[in-house]
Amino acid sequence: MATFISHSPADTAALGEKFGRAAARGLVLALRGDLGAGKTQFVKGLARGLGVSSRVHSPTFTLVNEYAGGRLPLFHLDLYRLETAEQVLSAGIEEFLEPDGVAVIEWAERLAGLAAGLGRPGRWVEVNLEIVSELERKITYDDLGA
């Protein structure tokens, strides 16, 4: 498990960009963190690292935003509004757990307890964003090279 201390939203996006440059087809990034922890900033950087030029925003009300035009397609999921296992299962997210590109799931903790029913993709990377202060974030993650 690696740790990165971000001192600004730009730092958080830069780490996401590093992930985007290293990402391979089939990667699923499971993001965990409170509101305001920087999950969407991380995804903006990820998209930049993949070469996606579209404006990235959180799909809180649409569940999934798809971005093409980069080295790999990016599927950005936000499970914040899904409160029960039944809602998560009925949302049809299974196809994004083994993506033909890169999938990033905000509020991935909503999948807890469902892993057995949904299965886990071959390349699942946990990224935890913790608020330390107004601008500082502690980001722990599975090493992409592991």
Measured as a percent range, the helix fraction is 10-25%
CATH homology group: P-loop containing nucleotide triphosphate hydrolases
Write down how many β-strands occur, each being a DSSP E stretch of 2 or more residues: 7
Order of helices and strands: EHEHEEHEHEE
Q: Largest sheet, order of strands side by side?
A: 1-7-6-2-5-4-3
Which architecture does the CATH hierarchy give at level 2? Answer: 3-Layer(aba) Sandwich
| Largest sheet descriptor | 7 strands, mixed
Number of helices: 4
Radius of gyration: 14 Å
Low-confidence parts, pLDDT < 50 over ≥5 residues? none
Task: Describe the structure concisely for a colleague.
With 146 residues, the protein is an alpha/beta fold. Helix content is 25%, strand content 27%.
